[in-house]
From TrEMBL:
<keyword id="KW-0472">Membrane</keyword>
<keyword id="KW-0677">Repeat</keyword>
<keyword id="KW-0175">Coiled coil</keyword>
<dbReference type="InterPro" id="IPR018159">
    <property type="entry name" value="Spectrin/alpha-actinin"/>
</dbReference>
<dbReference type="Pfam" id="PF00435">
    <property type="entry name" value="Spectrin"/>
</dbReference>
<dbReference type="GO" id="GO:0031965">
    <property type="term" value="C:nuclear membrane"/>
</dbReference>
<feature type="coiled-coil region">
    <location>
        <begin position="1111"/>
        <end position="1145"/>
    </location>
</feature>
<keyword id="KW-0597">Phosphoprotein</keyword>
<feature type="coiled-coil region">
    <location>
        <begin position="736"/>
        <end position="800"/>
    </location>
</feature>
<keyword id="KW-0539">Nucleus</keyword>
<dbReference type="InterPro" id="IPR002017">
    <property type="entry name" value="Spectrin_repeat"/>
</dbReference>
<protein>
    <recommendedName>
        <fullName>KASH domain-containing protein</fullName>
    </recommendedName>
</protein>
Amino acid sequence: MAEKLKGQLNNLVQFSRDVSPQSEKVTALIKQHNSLSLRASRECQNKERLLEQRFRAALRDFQQWLVNAKISTAKCFDVPQNVAEASNALQRIQEFLSDREHGQARLSTVRASGELLILVVSKDRVEGIKAKVTNAREDWKSLMNNLQMREDALKNLQSQMTEFEASAEPLQEWLNTTEVRVQESSVRLHDLPAKKQELNKLQCVLEEVASREAELGRLREKAHHLWEGQAAGKGFVHRVSQLSAQYLALSNLTKDKASRIERIVGEHQLFSQGLKELQDWLCEAQRVLNTCVSSTIDKSTLEDRMLQLEALLAARQEREIQLKMLLTRGEAVQRNTSAEGVPVIRKQIQDLKDSWDSLLSSCIRCKSQLEGALSRWTSYQEDVSQFVLWMDRVEETLSCSDRQFSEMRDKTANLGKTKLLYEEVLNHSSPLETIATKGSNMTEPCTTQQEVQQLQCRYNTLKDQAKNALSKAKGLVLVHQEYQRALHVFEEWLEQEQATLASISHPDGNVETLEKTLEQLQLLQDRCSNGQSLLSSVLTSREKVIPWGVPQIEDRALDTAQREWGAYQGHLEETHSHLSSTLGRLKQMGQRFLILAQWLEEMEKAANVRQNRRSDKLTKDTQLKKLQGCLEVVLSRQVEVDGLSSLTQEALEETCISSHISVTATQLIAQYHSLLLNIQGSIKQLQEELKSIEDADNICSTFTEWISSTQKGFAEVTDGSEPQDRVAIERMMKKLEALQSELQNGHGILKSLREQAEQATSFLTEAEAENLGCEVETRLAQLEELAGRLRQKHSFLQRMLLLAKEFQDRYKVQAQWLLETRALLSTPVEAKAELYQRRALLAKYKALSLMVQSHDGSIKSVIEKGDTLLASIHYSSVRDKTNRLKKHYSDLCNVAMSHVETLEDQVKEQEAYHKELQEMERWLLQMSSRMVTPDPTVCGSLESATQQLASHKAIMEEIAGFEDRLAGLKERGAHLVQGCGDRVQSKLRQQVQAHQQGIRDSYSAICSTAQRVYQSLDNELQRHVSLQDTLQQCQTWLSSIPEAGEPAAHPSLSLESALCQVKHERALQEQASTYLQLVCSTCDLSEARVRETAAAIQHVRLQIEERMLLCEELANNWRDIEEQKAELEVQLRETEQQLENLIRGPAELEPRIAQNLLDRAQVCVLIIMSYVMLSP
């Protein structure tokens, strides 16, 4: 309409220029229209701005409320750990829901202000405003739905928690009370019934504990149900775990207590039973002891009581162990008994100990009394019985002394025993007195006195008998000693005579000695009468001893002496007659020895014909004939000499001639035989010398013939041509060996010649011996010359034959080896698919190559043997064989080396491939271990996230560089496959493809993992950057707020400054709301620094709102002041105008009007005064 009016006005101006009055009206209308249009547009802009401010304020208020609501209810969505937390969360949600009208009112305000704003804004801004309203409504609905759902969940959880607590509390109380009961069970153990009662209680508690296990299981299921649904925290599971632990502890404690109290009860029962048993035994023992203490004089009764007391003491000793065990058990029972029951047990034990000690002292006292009485009775009776036994033994001994004792040792022993017995009888007077004294002290002295008198009488009789037996034994010993002395004197005399006879019974054998010996024998025959008188005295003393028994020892000695006496007399007669005959024979033999000695001297002079062995052959024949004549004469007396030897032997055997005669006879016989042997030896020596000379001559002629024939044969063998082959050499060798065997015969002949010549030279004259030696040396030189030539020729041929044979054998061996090895190496080398097969094949061919190289020495040895053989004998075939052997061996070495080099290249190639493959697999394995998805909790800061991303970028670059290694591995695999034969290529190609495919799959997996990790790290970094930027912006804004947001030091002095302050505070409020919305929408409120920043922004925002309210109030005040100022100015102008009018015409004023004017002026003054007072 304004445009229409403007157009009409323009038309009017255009078409009505000539009408000036209308033109002025139109101009006025146009000005008025423009003024109205300007005012209307300003009003519209102001209204739009106002509506937009209201919409923003309402939206900001709603968002702030929404943020506060989320912050205030954020803890309500945490997992509650107990019923109180769940109740608090539920109460907070319910309070918030009950106060939801505030939010609903703010949302309605936003919707209403948005609708109003939509009506006045342009179309392009409508959608944005609607979107903001819609977002606000959706945020409201989402918040309400979440709170409603959380409320329902918390109600359900609260009921479950309440139910759980309702079930857990009784169980907890029961566990606590039961534990207290079990703990207090050790206090009430004062006696055995109390212990049994506590044991029964604990067994009941155990049954109750077992019955509560099912309830604990149900609680555990409920707690796990609450926790597994994540509706509640793990506190309930911990609570159940605590209850279970407490339950198990209570169960174990109860079981331990029950087992302990059961053991204590058993121990107390055993203690009570043992105590009662020992008390009963002590009563019985006291009764027995009282019986033993009663007085009596009967010995058998004393002995019975003593046996009873000993049995009682033995039983007490056995019961001592039981007492110690009981005391030990009592200590254990005291330790396991409460304080009020310990004195009772101690009193029982002390009473038992006192009774036990009292019994022991009573037993000792009673035993000492019984032992005293019994010892007196026993001592008296033992003394009497021992004395009686002694007298019986002495009487028996005295009765045995009346028997005969034939031997001296028996009589001497009897005398000693009798003396000892008599001394013993005399010494037993004191025991008899002791018996009398003990008998007088007995309770019945009359009986003991009669017994002592009987013993005294018997003792006196026994003493007289012992004295008579002693005197009789002394007489027997003296008579027997006289008989022994006489016999000993006769034996000594006879021994002296026998020794004298023995000393003269073997004279030396000469005539003078034999004559002196015969005189001494005559003297011994004259002394035989003395011996006969000594023998008679011995027989007389024997007659005195015989009535008391024949002494066997002395009689045997007497018989021996009588036999020796008779033998001595016969020997004396025989020795005298024998020596007489021997003296006559000795004189006859001496005459014959003298004649024979003279003849031997004559024959020794006749047989001594050779003064020196060296003589000629004729002299030796003469000496031989003369010695043969002497030998015949000597042999004629041989029978006589042999008879002399037998005669001398007979004389030596039959008589006691000394060895002098035998020595003389032996000397004569030896002299005869020596003469005979000398003659025979000389004859034999001469015969041998003559024979040796003849043999030497014969052997010399034989050797001369042999040497000439042998030299002729050697000349025939060596004069031929040189051998050209092995057969010719062997044939010549055989001939030479035959000559060498003949040479051995020559050596034998020469040896015999030398031996005979050496023998002959020892008994020939010097001239003949020298001629014979020269002839032998000549023959020896001829033989040695021939032997040297034979030996030289034979050794040469033998060496050649050995060289030829050795060369041929070695050549055959090496040729055969070359043939076999060449056949082995001629097969082509086929590449294998597996590395170990290639290595094995390489090792095989290396071994073959080493074997071939090791035969180098053998080949060279064969060639050297051939060269040596060629240097001595010309062999055409040997040179061909050596050349052929060299060529074949060189070819074989080249083939082996080529095979080894080929296989080494193949093995190195495959090893390099496998090494590269293993390194790539190792790299992939290491890289897979490094490819770990980042943990957001680890990347807690921007720096760590940046470092992880940088390190991961380096890893990705390293992964990208792995492509070149894959390509290199593929090329190596292809080259490896191409180097194999067709039969192996397919298998090796499959292996290589499998290896490469596995590597590529692993590499692809690592690449995908690396990309995924990179994206995750990049997202995490972007999140940290965004969070850091947001928080940094917020912190920057917060740090600038204290400077820009502080209130002015002086209040605003005008409306414009107050409005500027309001505008500034409103801008700050918009910024705070924007930053708060940014933090709440883009950041995670679970982080502490985000929550701190949000809380700081909220705090600053609230401070800004407070200051903005103050500024708005101040602006409103200034606005009121301005309005009041304008009104005051109007009133002042009106008052001033009225005052001027009044001054001009005061007479015209009526009193009423004047009063009104005065009142108005006063009111105006009051208003001004009030403003002046209100003004700062």
